[in-house]
Each structure stands twice: as structure tokens, then as C-alpha cells.
Amino acid sequence: MKKRTIISAKSLMIFLRYSLIGLFIWNVLHLMVFLIFHLGPAVLFGERKGVHLPIVFSPSNEGILTLPNTDYEYMFHIPAATGTFQAYGLPLKFFYLYSISILVYFACILLITYLIIKMLKNAENGTFLVINNAIRLRYIAILCIVTLLRDKVNIIASSHYLKDKIELPGLEFYDLAPYSFQNWKHIFLYLFLLIIAEAFRIGAQLKEENDLTI
């Protein structure tokens, strides 16, 4: 029974590792498409392709909610929401800032995926509790924090740039709204992951010292 459980766990790790390898290749292809068809023409010929920018908005009108099996109608209001605005002909400076943001995103995602693949490879070989994996876990936490901050800076900067430049009846656009800081609590999870990584490192170091003593 124990042997069967070990085999099942190893099969799961192999499946996860190859799935992440596929995800890594997929993101590399996406990065190449962005470099060739979006950033490349801008750098070489000054052509700016359409880009999808996030923006925060709120409907200025209230809506009506009608529930089934009731005779009542309720008024509701959407305080904040986010959408995607497809922008063409952006100023070159803003286009480059947007491109840097995209490159940071791809760099973080690719590095996180690569580090997890390396950790799973060690787990397959039965050497999961090692200092290198603790260091990888620390880098994963830091990269997750960078990705979260990049996302928030991106939506705030984009909304600030677009709020006075677009008009749509019934919608009010903002540069800052509660929605801009959605998921900010995730940063505490990533900080906790840093603590786990340090505990992991200490445990791996003690294990190596005990192995040397034996």
C-alpha cells in the first residue's frame, strides 16, 4: 500500500512537471509574438499596434434587480469595476512603458514556472528538502510580490492616463477606486511564503549537517 502511494505521488509530480513545462513553452511563444508583432515594429519603424489597457470605471446610473418569485424590485449600484480599453496610436513613451510592464510580467511568470519545475524535479529524485529548493521558494515569493505590484501599478497608471481621454455615456472613469487595490491582501500570503522559505532553508541546513555528522 505504501509503495503504491509513493508511485502515485511520483506520477502526480511527473504530470505536474510536464504540465508546467508545457505552460512555460506556451508563455515563451506568447512572449515571442509580443516581441515580433508588437514591440518589434515600434522599435524598428515607429509603428504602434493596438494595446489592451485596463481602466477603472463606475456606471453613473442605478439598475433594477428583480428576483424570481417576488413582487419587489431592488435598486442597485455598481461602485467600481474594471474593463479593458483597446488603445491605438499611444504616445511612444507610454507605449514603451506599457511594453516594459508586459516584459516584467512575462519575466516573472517564466521564472516562477522554471523554479517550480526545478523543485518538482528534485522531488521526483527524492531530494526535495535541500537548501536550493528553499532559495527557489524564496525567489518564487519575491517574484509573486513583484507580479502583484506590477499589476496594481499598471491598472493605476493606465486608468490615470485614460480617465480624461475617453467618454462613454453612463460611465464615470477613475484613476483610483477600491477596485484598483483588489487582491492586495495576497501580498501577506507571499510574505508568509517568504517565512516558510526561510524555515525550509533552516530545516534543509540542519538535515545536511545531520547527514554529515552521521
From TrEMBL:
It holds the Pfam family DUF2975. This is DUF2975 domain-containing protein. Keywords: Membrane, Transmembrane, Transmembrane helix. InterPro entries: DUF2975 (IPR021354). Coiled coil: none annotated. The chain crosses the membrane at residues 12-37, 95-117, 129-149, 187-204.
